[in-house]
Amino acid sequence: MPNIEEKCRICPRECGIDRTVDKGYCKISGAPDTVRVSKAMLHFGEEPVISGTKGSGAVFFSGCNLGCIFCQNHKISGTGKGKDISVNDLEKIFLDLQEKGAHNINLVTGTHFVPQIVIALERVKPRLNIPVVFNCGGYEKVSTLKMLEGLIDIYLPDIKYYDNAIAEKYSRAKNYFDAASAALEEMVRQRGRYIIENSLMKSGVIVRHLILPNCYKDSIKIFNELEKYKDNILISLMRQYFPTGRAEEYPEINRKITTFEYRKVLDRCAELGFEGFTQEKGCENGDMTPDFDAEF
């Protein structure tokens, strides 16, 4: 059973905050044997191999270690809004989602709760007959991911930025790509080549990337760097960006992306031989964002 540190260093920011008495960068504080959850639901807005026909058993954790200024889940990531529950209650949520027919347990933005998640999964994993997904922003520490080894079946990281200046500007994470690259290496080491059975993912890694306005060249640099993993991972190229959160404060990203920007990245991915998922035009709105104001 992992120790839950008093001075939190669970993510690359290494705040060193005692989260029992103060909030870290992730906007979260609380008792060490609790997590804060904003929503638990059957979610149909993920990739087809994750959502399937019955939905992904998504558990949306409150807070975030990135805090991107354009976050589409900013109601929970930027405010810490949610309900504090015990680790035992978290286990019950996992089993309840499985009972409802979920294709998987989808842990959304749970980086800052990894020690508690590990405790819950170590207890409940023998009773789960569906995969567990770790759905994160890519800004992870290798040592934290090693805590999850054997408990996570599918890693679903965003790889957001290549240029550290862009990462610093929009997420205050100037070492983002170095951290995300090391994290992806560890994820692939743990899971190896992806496995899909009956149109559902059972194991492996899907790398998501959300193209930002005026940043398509940065996107291309990311995929140039990821080419070495193309035989083991799937990619999910997302065009769903729309200005939300604090994006209106940054004129250069206060718009949707253009077809030209999307096609430039898509064409480069095709040239490099990646396999995976793309999005149709028209998804640039809030339709895929859950209602975080509703009770769960």
Commentary on this structure:
This protein is α/β, with parallel strands linked by helices and 296 residues long. Strands 3, 4, 5, 6, 7, 8, 9, 10, 11 and 12 form a ten-stranded mixed sheet that branches. Strands 1-2 form a two-stranded antiparallel sheet. Helix 8 packs parallel to helix 9. The two termini are 29 Å apart.
Query: What value does the average pLDDT take?
Result: 93
Tell me, briefly, the overall form.
globular
Largest sheet: 10 strands, mixed
Structural class: alpha/beta
Q: Which parts are unreliable, with pLDDT below 50 for 5 consecutive residues or more?
A: none
Give the helices and strands as they follow along the chain: EEEHEHEHEHEHEHHEEHEHE
Number of helices: 9
Helix content: 25-40%
Radius of gyration equals: 18 Å
How many β-strand runs? 12
How far do the termini sit from each other? 29 Å
β-strand percent reads 15-25%
Q: Which helices and strands appear, and what pairs or packs with what?
A:
Elements: E1 7-8, E2 17-18, E3 34-43, H1 48-51, E4 56-61, H2 74-77, E5 83-86, H3 87-99, E6 105-108, H4 114-124, E7 132-136, H5 142-147, E8 154-157, H6 164-171, H7 176-191, E9 195-197, E10 200-210, H8 216-226, E11 234-238, H9 259-272, E12 276-278
Parallel strand pairs: 4-6, 6-7, 7-8, 8-10, 10-11, 11-12
Antiparallel strand pairs: 1-2, 3-4, 3-5, 9-10
Helix pairs in contact: 3-4, 8-9
